[in-house]
Design brief:
Elements: H1 3-24, H2 28-68
Keywords: Membrane, Transmembrane, Transmembrane helix
Protein name: Flp family type IVb pilin
Length: about 70
């Protein structure tokens, strides 16, 4: 499992536990809000990591082309 997905799953598991605790205390609307924020945060983190990986790959490819003296 990629580290990005591991972190996203960790956030979601934490949020579900937090929501369950809030439901037991009678504050269900706050639990739902916490889950929504956790899911949004997890998606943003995963997208940021994917974008960073793509950018790193493009930069490394172009650096290798410059090093080799190739334009293509």
């Amino acid at each position: 499992m990629p580290p990005e997905l591991f972190h996203a799953r960790t956030i979601i598991v934490w949020a579900r536990g937090h929501a369950e605790r809030m439901r037991r205390e009678g504050r269900s609307e706050l639990g739902a809000s916490a889950i929504e924020w956790a899911i949004i945060s997890a998606v943003v983190v995963v997208l940021a990591l994917i974008i960073a990986k793509v950018i790193t790959s493009v930069v490394n490819d172009n650096a290798n082309k410059i090093k080799d003296g190739s334009n293509y």
